C-alpha cells in the first residue's frame, strides 16, 4: 500500500494496532484515492490506517476488531457522550439509522481497531479528539437488525 501525502498532528506511537480484512483492504484504498480531491482529510486518514494495518484473512480477524458492518459503541473522551453506530461503505451510510460511512473522520479512525482501544480523530473544524471503543459486534445480522441504537446519551456529530 502506498503512503499518503499528508499527516495530521498526533503522536503515532500511541496509536493502537490496526487489523484489516484482506478482502476489503484494496477496496478501502481505492475508495480513499477516489475521494482525495473531495475529502482529503478523511482520505489521507484512511490511507494512514491502511498503511499501518496488519492485513489478515477474514477468518483471522478477531471478533472484537472493527470492520465494515461492525456495530461499534464508543465514547467521545472530550464530551463523555456514548454512541453506537454501524460502520459502512459510503453508499450505505444513513445517519438516521446510525450507519456511519468509512469516509467520515470517525469512520476512518475506527477501522481496524479493537474493543478497549482509544484512537484520535479530527473534526471538520480541525479539533483533535479521542474516542474509546467500548463494544464491537461483528454479527452482521445482529448489527443490521439493531440499527445502531444509542444508549440514550446525546449522539456526537459523526460527520464532524
Supply database-style keywords:
4 helices, disordered C terminus, 160 residues, two-stranded parallel sheet, alpha/beta
Structure commentary:
This protein has 160 residues and is an alpha/beta fold. It contains 4 helices and 7 strands. The strands form 2 sheets. The chain has a 5-stranded mixed sheet. A two-stranded parallel sheet has the order 1-2. Strand 6 (118-122) and strand 7 (128-137) form a beta hairpin. Helix 1 (22-34) runs antiparallel to helix 2. The longest helix is centred in the first third of the chain and has 13 residues, at 22-34. The protein is globular.
Task: Summarize, please.
The N terminus and C terminus are likely disordered.
Q: How does the SSE layout of this entry go?
A:
Layout: E1 19-21, H1 22-34, H2 40-52, E2 54-56, E3 71-76, E4 82-88, E5 99-101, H3 105-110, E6 118-122, E7 128-137, H4 140-146
Parallel strand pairs: 1-2, 4-5
Antiparallel strand pairs: 3-4, 3-7, 6-7
